[in-house]
Amino acid sequence: MKEKNNIKILLAEDNLVNQKVAYNLLTEEGYDIVIANNGHEVLDLLKKDKFDLILMDIQMPEMSGMEATQAIRQEEQETGKHIPIIAVTAHAMKGDREKCLDAGMDDYISKPVNPRQLYDVIKNFNQGNAKQSATQTQSYDHASVMERVGGDETLMREIVQIFVEESPLLLHEIEGAIHEKDSHKLERSAHSLKGSVSNFSAKKAYDAAYQLEKIGHEGDIETAEEIYKNLEKEIKVLTEELCSHI
Ligand code: MN
């Protein structure tokens, strides 16, 4: 077991097997863990004790993770605090992450829990990223990228590095195509950038690149300038967030 690291985590999980697995993984890393069996217990424990982070199962009896999160966020509107809440869910359905974020959660990991992903997400929030995520949804889906690279952090760093080198060149090409009113070139370069962004499940950047690709395809290049500005901004945000996560 590692040395204690003074980080106290509230683990909300109703399933006993899952509780035990997560409890062991977390205590092994030196985290201090308190277990809640449902949303009501989460709210009670928060009144009695101070926590650094909540790992929140979604489906729990009596009060679900969604309901508990909404109640916590409502309360926080008065206190001005913000405790990081990580959704842990068996739902592997598309759009689930959005639902969790809409409910006020900061991030999302899927069950069965991948230990490295779990440690990763906790570390993220203890490096002070919580505040940023509270006000702004992340530009990309860290959990699904980690899944895509099979939890391999070296590979993750490699693909981020390639992206950091490649994306300015593609942006430059897109900008050039717009100035030259070369719709074929615009379509081609926007398509390439869209493909590379898609690896990070970065929705906003993806959408902007896709719009430019369509504009290139349809040849209506007059409207491209504004979308390009937006794409440039989204790529910048994405690059910064990717670099701060690796
Ligand atoms: Mn459950």
Mean pLDDT over the full residue set: 87
What fraction, in percent, of the residue positions are helical? Answer: 55-70%
Fold-level CATH name of the largest domain: Rossmann fold
Small-molecule binders: manganese (II) ion
CATH superfamily (homologous) name of the largest domain: Response regulator
Using the CA coordinates, give the radius of gyration: 21 Å
User: First CA to last CA: what distance?
Assistant: 25 Å
The number of distinct helices, counting runs of at least 4 residues, comes to 10
Compute the number of strand runs: 5
Biggest sheet overview: 5 strands, parallel
Low-confidence stretches: 129-136
The count of domains is: 2
CATH hierarchy class name of the largest domain? Alpha Beta
Proportion in β-strands: 5-15%
Shape: elongated
**CATH architecture label name of the largest domain:** 3-Layer(aba) Sandwich
Strand numbers in spatial order across the main sheet? 2-1-3-4-5
Given the helix and strand composition, which structural class is it?
Answer: alpha/beta
What pattern of helices and strands is seen along the backbone?
EHEHEHEHEHHHHHH
Question: What do these coordinates show?
Answer:
The chain is α/β, with parallel strands linked by helices. The chain folds into 2 domains: 8-132, Rossmann fold (3-Layer(aba) Sandwich), CATH 3.40.50; 142-244, Four Helix Bundle (Hemerythrin (Met), subunit A), CATH 1.20.120. Helix content is 63%, strand content 10%. It is built from 10 helices and 5 strands, in the order βαβαβαβαβαααααα. It has helices at 16-28, 39-48, 65-79, 96-102, 115-135, 142-148, 153-179, 183-198, 203-218, 224-245; strands at residues 8-12, 32-36, 53-57, 85-89, 107-110. It has a 5-stranded parallel sheet, with helices on both faces. Helix 4 (96-102) links the parallel strand 4 and strand 5 (107-110). The protein is elongated. The two termini are 25 Å apart. The model is unreliable at 129-136 (pLDDT under 50). Manganese (II) ion binds at residues 14-15, 57, 59-60.
